[in-house]
Amino acid sequence: MDTKAIVQEFRRVAALNDWGSLHSAQNLSQALSVEVGELLVAVSDAGTQVPEIAAEIADVQMYLLVLADTLNIDITQAIKDKQTYNRRRFNPAKQSLS
């Protein structure tokens, strides 16, 4: 499933439940933080099975993609830009030995 299809399905479910008006960037960010918290709990619990963790990862990814879409951020380009920045910032050859 590509990112546009993920966002479309997320928005379809939101529309069916009249949640669209609740999906401001701030609210989506807050929901994302809740989902990350749920992922942390799942990963920290030794009894949690991989499918449950996978479901939490999926929730995080969906909220992140919808947040980026809401803010008109091309997440693929943002990742490329950040990777370029990180390569320059964390270049071991540029770090001093002192």
- Mean pLDDT figure: 92
Shape from CA axes?
globular
Instruction: Please identify the structural class as seen in this structure.
Output: mainly alpha
* Unreliable segments of 5+ consecutive residues: none
Order of helices and strands: HHHH
Instruction: Please give the largest β-sheet.
Output: none
Number of helices: 4
Number of strands: 0
β-strand percent reads under 5%
Distance separating the two termini? 48 Å
Radius of gyration based on Cα positions: 17 Å
Helical residue percent band:
over 70%
Explain what this protein looks like in three dimensions.
The chain has 98 residues and is mainly α. 71% of the residues lie in helices and 0% in strands. Helix 2 (25-44) packs antiparallel against helix 3. The model has no long low-confidence stretch (mean pLDDT 92).
Summarize this entry quickly.
The chain has four helices and no strands. It has helices at residues 3-16, 25-44, 50-70, 75-89.
